[in-house]
């Protein structure tokens, strides 16, 4: 089977690595890919991820059987729709269904209609009204910009003044779409779910991301600074509740409303006193959750995609080992950062690193080209052992331009 992955980050690096091991995959291309993927796939840096026509042409010319779309942008911009019109099989929802990630207002309205547990909310479309609302709303209050924001469009205001400032930030114009929601207390976790219409099968392993930039969950929100799996202190009962109260109902809701969802649905949940509640849905694998989950997945990802297509049982097998991934990011990220810093020390051990933001310079050395740069992976028979291994691999990396959190997976050790 000729398979094409779309994307250039660490998530796509992990998807490509996993597909490479599949008994079904005979040839693997990545558009655009990155320079660290060349040992596992043919990369195509000359084709842009948002050049849908060029991707379609490539897929037709090369008789691609399956396209696996990694990032949210091509999904919300309709790449699946375009490829499907030419009878190319695509793993990743179409434009209408991807609104579940692309529009916070859409996702909230759907959850409200189908009574899927989430924070109470209201959508406010004018700055004047928003300023009035935050004068006497309960605090903390969570403000979410509608539309894609790479994990950075959310402000949690603790004080009245922060709430007023947040309104200023999220309403550059009088009319903007912003969701205001109640602050939920509890631990966050991520559940990837295979979805085909109303058929939904969650991954049997939960992962936990670390969204804030600095240790002890301080600093601004990022795309994710590290992840691990399994999450031993968030037990099987929570996964079962997440499936019954969130995964199954949202798949039914999408189908009932006429959306044709096929792909991964990412459930970002928070474990409150009343059980799991939805923080966000994404229309694709999490990054860096995919890197740790696909490292731990023993069974064949492509086989699971084919099983999902036929709505057959998805017989997941997971390794015993725990997996921890620590992200090294450019100093300054998620705000402005410099590019072009030399990074070395990992090249001979690439199977334990997933690369998001590196490219080769004229001397063939790796230099930074993005905010999140490289994820160091550790495996071990306990979270502690996997964490130790991951940090050993972090220290092998030499660079002046990077920073990382020192407490990835600590939540699993405390309990
Ligand atoms: P989102 O982009 O919706 O996932 O939000 C980014 C991050 O903000 C989440 O991972 C949470 O850490 C935090 N967050 C979002 N909504 C809430 C909420 N209602 N209560 C508490 N924290 C939240
Ligand atoms: N790690 C969070 C996300 O992929 O959205």
TrEMBL record:
Name-wise, this protein is Phosphoribosylamine--glycine ligase
InterPro entries hit by this protein: ATP-grasp, ATP_grasp_subdomain_1, PreATP-grasp_dom_sf, PRibGlycinamid_synth_ATP-grasp, PRibGlycinamide_synth, PRibGlycinamide_synth_C-dom, PRibGlycinamide_synth_C_sf, PRibGlycinamide_synth_CS
Keyword flag Nucleotide-binding: yes
UniProt domain ATP-grasp: residue ranges: 108-310
Q: Which organism is it from?
A: Staphylococcus ratti
Q: Which cofactor does it need?
A: Mn(2+); Mg(2+)
Protein family according to the UniProt entry: Belongs to the GARS family.
**Biological or metabolic pathway of the protein:** Purine metabolism; IMP biosynthesis via de novo pathway; N(1)-(5-phospho-D-ribosyl)glycinamide from 5-phospho-alpha-D-ribose 1-diphosphate: step 2/2
